[in-house]
């Protein structure tokens, strides 16, 4: 994999609505301790200054000159042309800002920008979950759904080892999927940190605006005072809605699934509900999915997923034997890279691809 053998240095940035994380990658390895700064997303001048100074700080720590800048932004934008537009959590960019061309002019190196969900999925495909599975599996998988669970519900898709962005660079905006269980809301209203908080308060009969999902997890664990039953029910509701969305995505993309983001720490409370939906049936008795789905974080599922399910069949009018894979399998697992590191590796791989193909437009 080129990501681990490349000698070129690329500056990276994971740009969130609240914080920026700057780094540099070479050969798939982070070259410095990540530099964290506030994003100042509602103040364009301060935000742009922060981005420039952040990359300058990284360059000062490097021994080799970077060949490109590659980084992630949250939400839809004209990424091909490096223009960041109307983003809800970075309001200073309203109306469109030519961020890529600005940085290329300033630093005199190519600049590549892409959606954070896309780069997360690409990093997991190039250096994470997809590679881990293929090291063990006889069958080699080429497609991956990358899911991020946190403030919002995000995703990216890799098809035949290529990033699938869509015609307008907004493929994978899964947060707007329709909600088959609670039909008044789009899916992110039930699959996000605010969903867990809101539903805990609803079930507990309280109104506490100071709660965080980690608090609700600790309540479920019995580590801090609170309504444990309400905490458990909030996570189960989250998992039920997440499972519904995930079943639709697996139906469409027939891909392995890797889950990352801050809410993965609570997976023991919501993943059983996810798997119940995915392995369940419609009211008419039809299975929800054609696939046999395995949770690869579960020891028994992990062993079953990698067990041999092929049989030998004879080619008609011949004595030749051919292997037949009887069971369509899908594995779901949690990221070992972590979302931020996967995004950085995805940004690195994305830069190498573009440098190799010389597809940059500005």
From TrEMBL:
<dbReference type="InterPro" id="IPR043129">
    <property type="entry name" value="ATPase_NBD"/>
</dbReference>
<comment type="similarity">
    <text>Belongs to the ROK (NagC/XylR) family.</text>
</comment>
<protein>
    <submittedName>
        <fullName>ROK family protein</fullName>
    </submittedName>
</protein>
<dbReference type="Pfam" id="PF00480">
    <property type="entry name" value="ROK"/>
</dbReference>
<dbReference type="InterPro" id="IPR000600">
    <property type="entry name" value="ROK"/>
</dbReference>
């Amino acid at each position: 994999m080129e990501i681990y053998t490349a000698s070129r240095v690329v500056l990276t940035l994971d740009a969130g609505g609240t914080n920026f994380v700057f780094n540099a990658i070479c050969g798939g390895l982070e070259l410095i301790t990540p530099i964290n700064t506030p994003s100042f997303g509602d103040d364009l001048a301060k935000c742009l200054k922060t981005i420039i100074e952040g990359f300058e700080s990284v360059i000062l720590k490097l021994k080799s000159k970077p060949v490109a800048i590659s980084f992630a932004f949250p939400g839809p934008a004209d990424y091909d042309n490096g223009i960041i537009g109307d983003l809800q959590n970075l309001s200073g960019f309203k109306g469109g800002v030519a961020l890529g061309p600005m940085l290329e002019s300033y630093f005199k190196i190519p600049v590549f920008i892409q959606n954070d969900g896309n780069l997360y999925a690409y990093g997991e495909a190039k250096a994470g979950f997809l590679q881990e599975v293929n090291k063990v599996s006889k069958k080699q998988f080429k497609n991956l759904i990358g899911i991020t669970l946190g403030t919002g519900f995000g995703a990216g898709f890799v098809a035949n080892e290529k990033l699938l962005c869509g015609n307008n660079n907004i493929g994978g905006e899964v947060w707007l999927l329709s909600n088959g269980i609670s039909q008044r809301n789009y899916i992110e209203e039930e699959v996000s940190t605010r969903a867990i908080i809101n539903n805990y308060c609803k079930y507990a009969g309280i109104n506490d605006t100071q709660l965080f999902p980690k608090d609700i997890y600790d309540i479920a664990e019995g580590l801090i005072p609170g309504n444990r039953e309400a905490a458990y029910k909030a996570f189960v509701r989250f998992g039920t809605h997440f499972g519904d969305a995930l079943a639709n995505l697996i139906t469409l993309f027939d891909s392995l699934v890797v889950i990352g983001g801050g809410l993965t720490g609570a997976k023991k409370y919501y993943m059983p509900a996810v798997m119940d939906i995915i392995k369940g049936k419609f009211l008419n008795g039809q299975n929800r999915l054609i696939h046999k789905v395995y949770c690869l974080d579960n020891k028994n599922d992990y062993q079953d997923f990698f067990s041999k399910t092929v049989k030998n069949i004879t080619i008609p009018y011949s004595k030749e034997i051919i292997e037949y894979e009887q069971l369509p399998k899908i594995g779901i697992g949690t990221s070992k890279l972590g979302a931020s590191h996967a995004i950085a590796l995805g940004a690195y791989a994305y830069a190498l691809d573009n440098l190799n193909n010389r597809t940059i437009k500005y």
